Amino acid sequence: MHAVADGADPIFNAFREQFAPWEQKAKFTVDFYHVNEHLSVAADSIAPAKKQQWLHHQHGLLLGNKFGKVLETLETHLEPLEQEETPVCGVYQYIHKRKDNLDYAGARADGLPIGSGEIESGHRHVIQHRLKIAGAWWTLQNTEVMLQLRTTRANNDWSQYWTELAKN
Predict the structure, then answer these.
(1) Are residues 59 and 131 in the same domain?
(2) pTM for the whole thing?
(3) Considering 65, 84, 109, which residue would you say is the last residue of a domain?
(4) Is 73 helix (H, G, I), strand (E, B) or coil?
(5) How far is residue 5's CA from residue 74's CA, in Å, rounded to a whole number?
(6) Residues 104, 65: Cα–Cα separation, whole Å
(7) At 122, is the secondary structure helix, strand, or coil?
(8) Taking the CB of residue 77, how many other CB atoms lie within 10 A of it?
(9) Which one, out of 27, 43, 86, 143, has a CA that is 20 to 30 A from the CA of 19?
(10) How does residue 139 score in pLDDT terms, banded at 50, 70 and 90?
């Protein structure tokens, strides 16, 4: 199991709850693009004149699983505790808290995604296309069944589904 999502605590905690029995086989990776959004906020403070260059360098480090170097860079720019706005400190804490879930090199080597955009946009095509028909309404039970069928079809398992159903 390979899950990719932003590092929000509720999402991470839900993943842990659902996949605790398969902890050795279930891996959570923080969406690379969400990490980039956080780094972009820090770049405004650290390297405003060379933001894109700074971000490009940080991306290379993250993709090589060198998040420790990213943290070192951020650490040298941490704001004083008494400062009201602390964007660099916020990014530092975000990455530090999630450092065990930043194996981008491993995911890429295994041909796995490091971003959740494909999945996030997939709901428009798999779910909303069918369920948001004008005038339609659904019970929770029917919605779940419809979603299972739509997912089966989207995964190109339609023929296998009907073959298995006919056997039973």
Answers:
(1) no
(2) 0.70
(3) 109
(4) helix
(5) 23
(6) 6
(7) helix
(8) 15
(9) 143
(10) confident
Report the alpha-carbon distance of residue 34 to residue 47 in Å, rounded. Answer: 19
Q: Work out the number of other CB atoms within 10 angstroms of the CB of residue 69.
A: 15
Segment 7-10 long-range contacts (CB within 8 Å, at least 24 positions apart):
7/31, 7/34, 7/35, 7/94, 7/97, 7/98, 7/101
Amino acid code (one letter) for 154: A
- Residue type at 3? A
Per-residue confidence (pLDDT) for residue 7, from 0 to 100: 84
CA-based angle 134:136:141, to the nearest 5?
A: 145
Domain extent at residue 125: 117-167
**Residue at a domain's end among 109, 125, 155:** 109
The position carrying tokens 């990014």 is 91
Q: Are residues 94 and 25 in the same domain?
A: yes
Kindly state the percentage of the chain with pLDDT values over 90.
47
Q: And the tokens for 70?
A: 């990213």
Instruction: Please indicate, yes or no, whether residues 29 and 63 belong to a single structural domain of this protein.
Output: yes
The structure tokens listed for 126 are 């798999």
Amino acid 129: pLDDT: 66
Which two tokens mark 148?
Answer: 């299972």
